[in-house]
Design brief:
Mean pLDDT: 86
Strand order of the largest sheet: 2-3-4-5-1-6-7
Number of strands: 14
Largest sheet: 7 strands, antiparallel
Strand content: 15-25%
Order of helices and strands: EHEEEEHEHEHEEHHEHEHEHHEHEHH
Low-confidence stretches: none
């Protein structure tokens, strides 16, 4: 999200940094920027010009962090910086879905104008996508009762999609050198994938020999529940594999399962090996097809163990959390 201020008063940005301090990484904060982390999201808050500020977020629901930052600035302006005017821009949803690095930005003023004129669509000027004005309204920070109704409707739809299990269960990460074309006498990552599919787990499996966008793989990883890595000497020597593993473990903090493959355990001496030195792994070192069933049973046991926390049937289908300050009782007592 990009903010354009007519005038950005001294102190507004830094006071916002202070209010967001609980989500800040103290090692990565400076006068004109902050690195934020909340749940499985990471964000960059940066004042890149005297009158311009950008907020970039990665995570399963980036709009949650965007709305949080927006609310902080709105509150500060209402409290101490009356009269400050700004417009903000949101990226084209289709550009985001296609992982475009330079998405078209729709300004909030244009979207509001389209709503006032009851225009059904707006067009992305960079890639000529046709976007529903209602969809654009749903990704803007809510400001009116109608906005809140739109957001609530989308939240209900998201809950329904979640119930239908549209997210991935397992992200499978491996080095292509550990996936030979001749699968006759080795335990192959694809064999593991097929067994997981038989157990009705939805898997992301990058096929060997094909090129995949790093952004697309990262998005699939964010959407997955478990990260399964076929760690080996080849894996720890592959920078792409190492980066993906660190992103899953350190940044997203995904539950993960290690499957050790290859001829030996030399990978334990690597930097990545030291990172997981205390992790119990499924040992498929130099394993043959004859032991595949036993090793697969062990792997499935670990997957089921991660999924073992079940919600009681007596639990309500939806839990609503809110601040007392926004409750009916608080409003009746005079809060705003």
């Amino acid at each position: 999200m990009l903010y354009h201020f007519e005038y950005l008063p001294a102190g507004l940005f830094n006071r916002a940094q202070v209010r967001l301090q609980e989500f800040s990484d103290s090692a990565i904060i400076w006068k004109r920027g902050s690195f934020l982390r909340k749940n499985e999201h990471i964000a960059l808050l940066h004042q890149n010009k005297d009158t311009e500020m950008v907020v970039k977020v990665q995570g399963p629901r980036p709009e949650n962090i965007l709305f949080l930052v927006h609310e902080v600035f709105e509150a500060l302006i209402n409290e101490s910086f009356h009269g400050v005017r700004y417009d903000f821009s949101v990226p084209c949803p289709d550009c985001n879905n296609l992982m475009k690095r330079d998405p078209h930005m729709f300004t909030a003023s244009m979207i509001r104008r389209a709503l006032d004129l009851q225009a059904p669509f707006l067009q992305c000027l960079k890639y000529f996508h046709t976007i529903s004005v209602g969809d654009l309204q749903s990704i803007m920070p809510p400001d009116t009762t109608q906005d809140y109704d739109i957001h609530l409707a989308h939240a209900v739809n998201d809950l329904m999609e979640f119930e239908q299990g549209k997210t991935l269960d397992i992200f499978i990460s491996y080095c292509e050198l550990d996936a030979p074309k001749d699968k006759s006498n080795v335990i192959h990552p694809e064999d593991v994938k097929q067994e997981l599919l038989k157990e009705n787990y939805k898997c992301y499996y990058p096929e060997a020999g094909k090129k995949y966008s790093t952004d697309l793989m990262a998005k699939s990883l964010i959407d997955s529940s478990i990260f399964v890595a076929f760690i080996s000497n080849n894996y720890v020597s592959d920078q792409t594999c190492c980066n993906m593993f660190k992103f899953a473990k350190t940044t997203l903090r995904k539950p993960f399962i290690l499957v050790a493959v290859g001829p030996d355990h030399e990978w334990k001496k690597s930097a990545l090996g030291l990172l997981v030195s205390d992790v119990v792994f499924v040992n498929m070192i130099d394993s043959k097809k004859s032991v595949f069933a036993n090793k697969m049973e062990e792997l499935l046991g670990k997957v089921k163990e991660i999924y073992s926390v079940e919600v009681s049937n007596e639990s309500p289908p939806c839990f609503i959390s809110y601040c007392w300050k926004n409750s009916k009782d608080a409003v009746e007592l005079g809060t705003k």
